[in-house]
Specification:
The protein is of the alpha+beta class and 167 residues long. Helix content is 19%, strand content 26%. It contains four helices and nine strands; from the N terminus they run H-E-E-H-H-H-E-E-E-E-E-E-E. The protein has helices spanning 9-12, 57-60, 71-82, 87-97; strands at residues 42-44, 47-54, 102-108, 113-117, 123-126, 131-134, 145-146, 151-155, 160-164. The strands form two sheets. Strands 1-2-3-4-8-9 form a six-stranded antiparallel sheet, with helices on one face. Strands 6-5-7 form a three-stranded antiparallel sheet, with no helix packed on it. The protein is globular. The relative contact order is 0.13.
Length: 167
Amino acid sequence: RPLWSDASFASVAPVIFSACVLAAVRSATAGMPADETAAAPFASGRWLLSHNGVVDRAVLGPHPAAESACDSAQLAAHLFEFGPERVGDFVIDLGKRDPGARLNLLLTDGRRVLATRWNDTLSVLRTDEGVVVASEPYDDDPRWADVPDHHLVEVSADAVTTTDLEA
């Protein structure tokens, strides 16, 4: 259920604690289904995925495991089959097949976070308490850093690394 329509969220949010959280606050793309199955995060095994962007569903092709007909759900099903650990290779290939795609993906297996910036904005905030990866800064903290376009960010307990996907 989308966060903004989940009446229980406000009551449980203050007591939720985890070392790794994926929060997806996004509506479905215009022209795409807007039901609950179209709302991220999408799940497969231990992996969660959120997509901020748009991709041509004709380029993706339908996937029988997709939770919805929306582009993000189709993309998630294809990536889960391809292998979430290989998200960089997946985005490079999809970006070549759909040059207008915006492919900001955020994935976690509960231990690490993988995020791609592809034709959209992505920022990282490092604090003493942890790391935040977001489509855009949610405050004016000067520690926010823009991720360069066409890059992969990996956040683990030990490090934050950024890799050029076109190198």
